Amino acid sequence: MIMQDSVQELTGVRSDEPTAEEIRLSGGLLVEDWPHARQVMRLSIQLFEATQPLHGYGKHALRLLERAAFLHNTGMMVEARRHHKHSYRLIKETPLPDFSDKQRHEIACIARYHRRALPSTDHEEYASLSSSARKRVSALSALLRIADALDYDHDGRVLKVAADSAHCTEKHWTLRLWVRPLADLDVELEHAQEKADLFEKIFDRKLHFVTHD
User: Domains in the chain, start-ordered, CATH in brackets?
Assistant: First the structure.
């Protein structure tokens, strides 16, 4: 069972406790907010699909992204201030079902770059990756940064994300957001624009958001 299946089963569920399957897939790692972890993973999957023409990756890369998205905040169990770095260390050191050591290193790097600094060869963990892995980590981290921002308030107010194909060009990429009724999205959009920095660097397009009426 892959985590994408778990997301579909958990749509609409805001349980504060992990399922036995989630604990197995996380290798026993914990997160401080399970509904947020599920929501960020769900949005990451939708963003992956919405930007597939840009990155061109398939199921292998999606598996890396969804596991990284689910565990991106595991470092919060250590401390908040540098939790992205702690997430990297915890994931790197914890065997995860269905993934090799090299794949787990990529997952750890994707989680590490969900906030703060962008991927850089000045960072040992990133520099040690192969060229193709660095490219993949950068692209997937760009999507995770946005997914995390779109759940800034940890309350699942964004219901769906999809590409607005009529407004996706060689210079711009537009994402359409479906939002929970009466929910305000100002804070989420502000943070999503801030965390679109890596997306715009990697894909060489300005990112825009529109809400679905």
Answer: 3-153 (1.10.3210.10)
- How does DSSP assign 131-144, residue by residue? HHHHHHHHHHHHHH
DSSP string, 1-20: --HHHHHHHHTT---SS--H
DSSP state of 118: P
Q: What is the pTM of this model?
A: 0.93
pLDDT at residue 5 greater than cutoff 80? no
- The residues near 23 (Cβ < 8 Å, ≥ 6 apart) are none
Q: Which residues, in sequence order, are bridge partners of residue 161?
A: 177
* Residues comprising the chain, all counted: 213
Residue where the block lists tokens 């090299």: 102
Please tell me the distance from the alpha carbon of residue 132 to that of residue 144, in angstroms, as a whole number: 18
Average pLDDT over all residues of the chain: 94
What the block records as the tokens of 15 is 């349980």
Amino acid at 129: L
Q: What is the pLDDT of residues 60-69, one digit of tens each?
A: 999 999 999 9
Query: Rounded to an integer, what distance in angstroms lies between the CA atom of residue 179 and that of residue 197?
Result: 23
